[in-house]
Amino acid sequence: MVEEIQNKLQLEVDKFKAVQKDYHKALAQRQQLDGQLNENTAVKQELDLLQSGAEVFKLIGPVLVKQDLEEAKQNVAKRMDYIRNELKRTDDMIASLDKKQDVHREAINKLQQQFQQLQMKAAMKA
User: What is the pTM (predicted TM-score) of this model?
Assistant: First the structure.
């Protein structure tokens, strides 16, 4: 009985660690997306300062290519929309992983309590 609970406990701890790993990956991804959104917001603000007809260049590899101002604004707006959608998806994933962590924590606590109770019973019998 003690070994069975120990095995369940180890299995639950392993699951918890896996969820924790995914949670930390999701947090890192969220930080990266946040940085990209801030970067694109700064670009949008700079583009908004320009007058129509102003020359805008886009860096493609090692080359600067002339781009239409309106096209540049649309590209930045689309990129920002995409990043916002990814942020929402990542936030939802983080919330889901957070709940999974809580479930595993509770299961670990219950198994630990059962394990301690069995150990105390075994100690009393000895």
Answer: 0.81
* pLDDT tens digits, one per residue of 76-106: 999 999 999 999 999 999 999 999 999 999 9
Q: Cα 11–12–17 angle (5° rounding)?
A: 100
Alpha-carbon span 12 to 81, nearest angstrom? 39
Among residues 14, 75, 18, the alpha carbon closest in space to that of 47 is found at 75
CB under 8 Å to 43, separation ≥6 — which residues?
Answer: 76
Burial class from Cβ neighbours inside 10 Å (0-12, 13-18, 19+) for residue 26 reads buried
Place of tokens 């301690």: 116
The token pair at 31 is 């930080």
